[in-house]
Amino acid sequence: MAELMPIGTSRDAIDSENVASFLARVHPVDWKNPTARARYDLAILGAGPAGVEAAESAVRLGKSVALVERDRIGGTSLNQGSIPSKAIIRSARALMAVRDSDEYGTALQRHPRSDFAAMMARMHRIRTRVAEYHSVKRLQGMGVDVFFGDACFAGPDAIVLGDTRIAFEFALIATGARPKSSDIPGLAHVGYRTSESIFQVTELPARLGVIGGGPLGCEIAQAFCQLGSHVILMQNAPKFLPAEGRDAAELLSMSLSRDGVETRLNTAVVGARREGSGKILDTTNDERKESIAVDEVLLAIGRSPNVENLELAAAGVEFDCSEGVKVDQFLCTSNPRVYSAGDVCNEQKFTNAAKASGHLAVQNAMAGQRLPHTRLYIPWCTYCDPEVAHIGLHPSEARERSIVIKSYTVMMQDVDRAITDGQDSGFVKIHVAHPTDRIVGATIVGVRASELINEMAVIMSAGMGMRELANVLHTYPARSDSIRLAALAFVQNQGPAPT
After folding, report:
1. 6 in a domain, yes or no?
2. 162 located within any domain
3. Its pTM surpasses 0.70
4. Is residue 148 within 8 Å of 28, Cβ to Cβ?
């Protein structure tokens, strides 16, 4: 059913109103910073997922909090990352479901088409709705003093924001990370997009070149291809998703090719130039050279920590421009008053990891706890089709730690719910420390892997072993039963528990 709009109201007017509503939540145009207190229990630099979580955690402890943000509340996740990308991915999946409807006996009479402008408008509406839960008004209501502007340290126990000095008992650096830049000759001249600007496009590019085969590159490549772009994905490595296992990466690679993405592995982009109204990317693969014509370029080669212009040396905080702020296992920096959390110091640059570290840093600094962040079980997922999710150790990491493991795999083609859904690509693989039944890691590939991996997070956090897991009842039919089936495979392989 077509979306109903008030008579006389254009979509452009609705979108303009939506943008204004979004900004009112994350950075009101008429904002005036509050008068700073003489001293705060906690001063936070950065209001992304880590900073906001830390502010809320500190307020719940009864602490005074100053939260400083140079741009918008919500950080990359809300403004340019997780929320916008997943909204676009959902639109692409909806279009693919219509295209594939004949497989389910529900073939439509008309060929479906994508309305890219409408999809982007939907994305903006969703982002505005989510922003309500991270809004300035909400933080104010909790008692957080919110400051907007560029801030830096003025010593080991104070930061400055213009003419405002904010003294603190503890501080948290949560300034996040930004897309890595590139030294590809000519690329800056021809122009390219990153995660910060790809969701600002107003028309679907006819030809999109994606440089980088990590999570963002793969997600955008597949979604834009499904929406109708001709996409070429280039990765200067032998496989996509370098952090994942080869079997998972190969399954995703086949899926990308199935959807029409032109994939180029072991391919380096060595130059960029303009030719007419288009852009040319010059590439090499061993001895083979190729020139690829595109209309837009997405650069997705990783993220760099935001440590510049913070005067960290004035606070006695050690850092590295490529690795970020240096912290110990408790997230404390070289200054015992200053902690750090989120992408600016975490190796795993995920929203859930940022939130968890923000909360943990506050607990360690202000609640008398000493909880190492290395003990956190952090699941993550690449939201392609199929989704690729993981938690804990990969086999290679286990070998580096001299942990002997055995892996137990259940293919989704053997799971009843996956068969009935007609979506049986993927697998569940659980890694167990031999000769125990202790689970040290898991990879799940398939539809809703992002949800299934959370069950593994609960299992591992609770210390549940494979024998106990094998006795846990699941609804039938359900995709999550694949996890129980992997545990049953362990029991059948290992025999009854020793008495």
Report:
1. no
2. yes
3. yes
4. no
